[in-house]
Automatic annotation (TrEMBL):
Keyword annotations: FAD, Flavoprotein, Oxidoreductase, Transit peptide
Acyl-CoA dehydrogenase/oxidase C-terminal domain location: 237-383
Keyword Secreted attached: no
Entry GO MF terms: fatty-acyl-CoA binding; flavin adenine dinucleotide binding; glutaryl-CoA dehydrogenase activity
Domain Acyl-CoA dehydrogenase/oxidase N-terminal: 20-130
Protein name: Acyl-CoA dehydrogenase
Length: 390
């Protein structure tokens, strides 16, 4: 299967260095996106619908918790996971976000910190897409600062009782299980909460201008009573949820490349086919300059993502390196999507073409799992040795 669009902007032949297994996965996910996401995405985005029917298909493709080992998970490499995220986000950020929340956040938390019993109870079903998971960290008053967490879990005999609120929780209204982070007497701990537990409620956030084909919710926890074994035994303090965020941030560094590349591909195809002033607009100097600048940024972002993936597979990846990818790649992706839109003129503001949809989605991608400001200060602290957060 030859994928011209995958390599149109690949001026340095980066994809030529992928292994056969990596390219095979790339083509399989790209084919899924062409068959199952592209035909429906304009309508889903327009109607603000997340296509739940895709969930078991994503499980069948082995994309849910794909970097995890055992319990029905695919056990693929970090680079393979990244490639899959890139191809999914070329379809739509909202679809990639689903896989990220399910695999990098909810399943990762259970896989890293769960008991044997918790892993066996949830991971195989989540890997198949039979159960959707969500990850409750962010709160209405504590977006970028999880250390200000107000949600509490207190012991009551053999049980735990959770009270609090979470916001911007992906998938919560369709999830069967939630990983909820709460303050206890011993600091922040994680809990596995079946969403049918009395006192748990999730309300989708509506009227969004971004990520419309995706679900984000407000979650309320009112006297949610759980057995002692709902506690994630392996996670203590904020290092637990942060290690899951780093998994998600890593996937975003790859995913953003997909959104940027798809925006470029759409603009290139349009520029070749659209005639103005007697020639295709691809033959005009300013259009060529736009295309060249976009392609260069996509190449640099792709090299960063690939470098992160190879380091991750070697066990040499540091969290500050992930911040490089998250900050740079979301930033260039949104600029690329906006620049690509200009090549379409007025036609570019409709859902007939992908760049403005990608640009709108990327407003969320750029904000979640650490804003530009947060990653800038993480890197500033790395460079100077001084924390500027407080």
């Amino acid at each position: 299967m030859h994928h011209d669009s995958i390599t149109a902007s690949d001026l340095l032949g980066i994809d030529l260095d992928l292994s056969d297994a990596e390219r095979e996965l790339r083509d399989r996910v790209s084919d899924f996106v062409n068959r199952r996401i592209r035909p429906g995405i304009a309508d889903w985005f327009d109607r603000a619908v997340f296509p739940l029917e895709l969930v078991p298909e994503l499980g069948e493709l082995g994309l849910l918790g794909m970097h995890l080992h055992g319990y029905g998970c695919a056990g693929r490499s970090a680079v393979e996971y990244g490639i899959a995220m890139r191809e999914l986000e070329a379809g739509d950020s909202g679809i990639r976000t689903f896989v990220s929340v399910q695999g990098s956040l909810a399943m990762s938390a259970i896989s890293k910190f769960g008991s044997e019993q918790q892993k066996e109870a949830w991971l195989p079903r989540m890997a198949r897409g039979e159960v959707i998971g969500c990850f409750g960290l962010t709160e209405p008053a504590a977006g970028s600062d999880p250390s200000d967490m107000r949600t509490t879990a207190r012991r009551d005999g053999d049980e735990w009782v959770i009270d609090g609120e979470k916001r911007w929780i992906g998938l919560a209204s369709v999830a069967g299980v939630a990983v909820i982070w709460a303050n206890t007497e011993e600091g922040v701990r994680g809990f596995v909460v079946p969403t049918d537990t009395p006192g748990f409620s999730a309300t989708p956030i509506t009227q969004k201008l971004s990520m419309r084909a995706s679900i984000q919710c407000d979650v309320a926890l009112k006297g949610v009573r759980l057995p002692a074994d709902a506690l994630l035994p392996g996670a203590s303090g904020l290092r637990g949820p942060f290690s899951c965020l780093n998994e998600a941030r890593y996937g975003i560094a790859w995913g953003a490349v997909g959104a940027a590349r798809d925006s470029f591909d759409a603009a290139l195809a349009y520029a070749r086919g659209r005639t103005q002033f007697g020639r295709p607009i691809a033959g005009h100097q300013l259009t060529q300059q736009k295309l060249v600048n976009m392609a260069l940024e996509i190449q640099k972002a792709q090299l960063i993502a690939l470098r992160l993936g190879r380091l991750k597979d070697e066990g040499r990846l540091e969290h500050t390196m992930i911040s490089v990818g998250k900050l740079n790649n979301t930033r260039i992706a949104i600029e690329t999507a906006r620049e690509a839109r200009t090549i379409f003129g007025g036609n570019g503001i409709t859902l007939d073409y992908s760049p403005m949809r990608h640009a709108a989605n990327l407003e969320s991608v750029r904000t979640y799992e650490g804003t530009d400001e947060v990653h800038t200060l993480i890197l500033g602290q790395k460079l100077t040795g001084l924390s500027a957060f407080h």
